[in-house]
Design brief:
This protein is an alpha+beta fold. The chain has 4 domains: 64 residues, OB fold (Dihydrolipoamide Acetyltransferase, E2P) (Beta Barrel), CATH 2.40.50; 314 residues, no CATH class; 56 residues; 107 residues, Nucleic acid-binding proteins (OB fold (Dihydrolipoamide Acetyltransferase, E2P)). The protein is built from 17 helices and 32 strands. A 5-stranded mixed beta barrel has the order 1-2-3-5-4. Helix 4 packs antiparallel against helix 16 and helix 12 runs antiparallel to helix 13. It is globular. 36% of the residues are buried.
């Protein structure tokens, strides 16, 4: 017997397209008929139309606002252009017949205290609050809406009738491309398409607007994440032109520190250099054994003026985004890799910091300066570490006694202060993807964590602390980098998990980093080390930017602000401008609009940071999936990295590749998810698979474009007491309340 076709609700975009393109639709019944809405689908369809009316997508009477002429409802859906001025957001109505009249300008008002902070590129639901004689309006944001995208990306598969567009995510649908919409695309190419619903049933049809390239070629894999997350990656011509017209800064208004032998220590592949360091024993007779540490940070504020066209583009991007095969920079190359970068033997403007530490590692004084400096050497972490370890090369040998050894001596003293502070001591290895000449994975390694890394990290942390302290002392506007302490729900989950390992944790919700460190120390030499590190990481709050100081829990600091990376983070540029204004170091500091918009700026920069992190993670997953595709059917050693009701996530030991094992494929029992143990336990046998368990798996499916892999579990679990009738009953009752009772197989 043939199955009846499944009826699904149309999208709001499809409904709008039907109203615009089909003159036979006069009312709600015609609309329901066009989309074959029947039976049980009628109620959710009515609800969908009500939502569209509330959002201003449809008139409150009838179904087609387009045919009623231009009208701006009191509550309207507005779009803010990507190039909108962040200090003066002008939006436009989503639906407007420009043949009848020009789109009105709508000024989006915002309060510094508002939790809703729209930004350039957003689509918002707004209340129209006033209008002017020239037809322009003012509006207040009600909420930020999900963006409706006309352009999508996918993989082309040519056939006799044109091509199929193969989705790259589960959220997309396969579409047709006619022969006249192919451009020059070849089978297997990653393309960007414009989607337009056609026909009475609004079946989506695609037309290629851009050929991005083959997904297995250099750069194309990153472009998937860039498109999906809408990361601005092409600088407007006017921004590039403005950057090219900039001239090197002069010494005027700056202290001359060019004779100080600063050096940069960065990854070997770094093209931009934000920071340079130098240290020397303090010659003050009252500070015997103390050290003076000097840090120079690229003076981006000299070239990127508040409100300039370059500044607006930098704000829009929020930060640079780093992929294994490319970088999407926050600033044009002439600024990031040239004028601002602290290039060896080149004069560069910088914001400098002098810190004085006593022999116990306590900072006893600091001061900021605006300088002209010159880097005396460009070193990699590995070079600097090798020199300290007794293996200097031709570059580091002349620097060893007068520059490198004093730097390390200063760090040893600073480390004493760090140890007293007791920051969170998580031990989670970071893997590095190395690519071949074609942009695909060559190998995946875990680089060693060198003392050179810790030296630069600690000096930058203390510089960030000094920036926050100075701005507070001068009553300046300030964008903190905040990391709140863990919430009570996460702490409860952590306690339950540790209890399942027969480990205890403080019962109070008032916790300190030392409580976590004590637990990490207990687990250090046990088989549960990675489990405990992972769960403590999950218990932490997410760091963000805010003008309200919540402290930095992970670093165990009362105040903290990002100051040391202005080439790649807009937050740091804000702090530079604040210091310039507070210390009267120039006329290119914060303006009044910068100060009044700190809350919105913090919200926006927290979003762009999370967006970049998601893009980097997605790209790594896709690259690793391509790498693993040739290993189908192979077996691997791994560790359970996540447990959900749906199944187990496993991370492979050698590559760090992540894959999924569906619950239905685990063993021969019925496995239930026990949250407090972070485990799946067999109902009859008591076989348990828990977070952190070592397992052997077989690779059975790879979806490179989605970055997904599926494993088959080969290992046996630990045998524990089977779930009794009482526990099964509690589980079923709990899930009935959630409406999620799972059927037995």
């Amino acid at each position: 017997m043939a199955q009846k076709p499944k009826i699904t609700l149309p999208t709001k975009q499809q409904i709008i397209a039907a109203l615009e393109n089909d003159d036979t639709i006069k009312g709600r019944r015609d609309l329901a008929k066009a989309f074959n809405i029947k039976g049980a689908m009628r109620t959710p369809f009515k609800q969908l139309l009500r939502e569209m009316k509330q959002e201003g997508l449809m008139a409150k009477s009838g179904v087609n606002p387009i045919k009623q002429g231009n009208h701006l409802p009191s509550v309207s859906v507005l779009e803010i252009p990507h190039d909108a001025d962040p200090e003066h957001l002008i939006a436009y109505p989503v639906k407007w017949n420009e043949a009848l009249s020009k789109k009105p300008n709508i000024l989006v008002e915002s309060s510094p205290r508002s939790k809703i902070a729209p930004a350039a590129g957003d689509r918002i639901l707004a209340r129209i609050i006033s209008s002017s004689n020239d037809g322009d309006y003012k509006a207040k944001t009600i909420k930020i809406l999900d963006k409706q995208r006309l352009n999508q990306i996918g993989i082309v598969r040519l056939d006799n009738e044109g091509a199929r567009l193969i989705p790259i995510t589960r959220k997309q649908r396969e579409m047709r491309i006619s022969k006249d919409g192919l451009l020059d695309a070849q089978s297997g190419d990653l393309v960007e398409v414009e989607v337009k619903p056609v026909g009475r049933l609004m079946i989506p049809s695609a037309k290629i607007t851009k050929v991005i390239g083959n997904p297995q070629s250099e750069g194309a894999v990153s472009m998937i994440a860039i498109h999906n997350l809408e990361i601005p990656h092409i600088f407007p011509e006017e921004v590039l032109k403005a950057a090219q017209q900039l001239k090197p800064a002069s010494k005027k208004g700056r202290e001359d520190w060019r004779d100080i032998p600063f050096i940069t220590i960065d990854p070997a592949s770094a093209k931009d250099h934000d920071d340079a360091v130098y240290a020397t024993p303090d010659n003050n007779k009252n500070n015997i054994g103390g050290y003076k540490v000097l840090i120079a940070i690229a003076d981006v504020a000299t070239y990127v003026k508040s409100g300039s066209i370059i500044d607006k583009e930098a704000y829009l991007r929020g930060n640079s985004t780093y992929f294994p095969d490319m970088v999407v920079p926050m600033l044009p190359e002439n600024i990031s890799n040239n004028l601002c970068s602290l290039i060896e033997s080149e004069d560069r403007p910088a914001m400098a910091l002098e810190m004085i530490f006593d022999n116990a590692g306590k900072k006893i004084a600091h001061s900021f300066h605006r300088i002209l400096m010159r880097s005396h050497a460009k070193l990699s972490y590995q070079q600097a570490q090798a020199a300290i370890d007794g293996k200097p090369d031709n570059i580091t040998k002349p620097l060893l006694d007068d520059i490198l050894k004093p730097l390390w001596a200063a760090y040893k003293i600073m480390a004493k202060g760090r140890d007293r502070r007791k920051p969170l001591e998580l031990d989670l290895p970071e893997r590095k993807i190395e690519l071949d000449k074609d942009g695909m994975v060559k190998r995946i390694t875990i680089p060693p964590r060198l003392e050179a890394h810790r030296l630069i990290e600690e000096m930058m942390i203390m510089a960030n602390v000094c920036a926050a302290q100075t701005l507070e002392q001068n009553n300046s506007a300030l964008l903190y980098r905040v990391h709140d302490q863990p919430g009570s729900e996460k702490l409860i989950a952590l306690r339950e998990f540790l209890s399942s390992l027969k480990m205890s944790f403080i019962k109070s919700d008032v916790v300190r980093t030392e409580h976590f460190n004590q637990t990490l120390k207990k687990a250090k030499d046990t088989q549960n080390k990675e489990q405990v590190n992972e769960m403590i990481l999950r218990s932490q709050s997410q760091a963000e930017y805010s003008p309200i100081n919540l402290g930095h829990f992970g670093l165990n600091l009362e105040r903290y602000a990002h100051f040391t990376s202005p080439i790649r983070r807009y937050s740091d540029l804000i702090i530079h401008r604040a210091l310039i204004s507070a210390l009267k170091l120039g006329n290119d500091g914060l303006d009044e609009q910068d100060m009044s918009r700190m809350a919105q700026t913090g919200t926006h920069l927290s979003f762009t940071e999370r967006r970049s992190m998601s893009a980097e993670r997605e790209t790594n997953d896709r690259l690793v999936a391509y790498f693993m595709a040739s290993k189908m059917g192979a077996t691997f050693a791994g560790r359970i990295s996540g447990v959900t009701k749906s199944g187990l996530f496993v991370r492979l030991n050698e590559t760090g590749a992540d894959g999924f094992i569906p619950a239905a494929t685990i063993g021969k029992d019925y496995y239930r998810y026990i949250e407090e143990q972070q485990a799946m336990i067999g109902e009859r046998t008591g076989e348990r698979f828990r977070l952190g368990d070592d397992v052997s798996v077989k690779l059975v499916e790879v979806a490179p474009l989605e970055g997904n892999m599926r494993f088959e579990l080969l290992s046996k679990g630990e045998m524990v007491e089977p779930l009794g009738n009482r526990e099964r009953g509690r589980y079923k009752a709990r899930n009935r309340q959630k409406g999620k009772v799972r059927r037995k197989r």
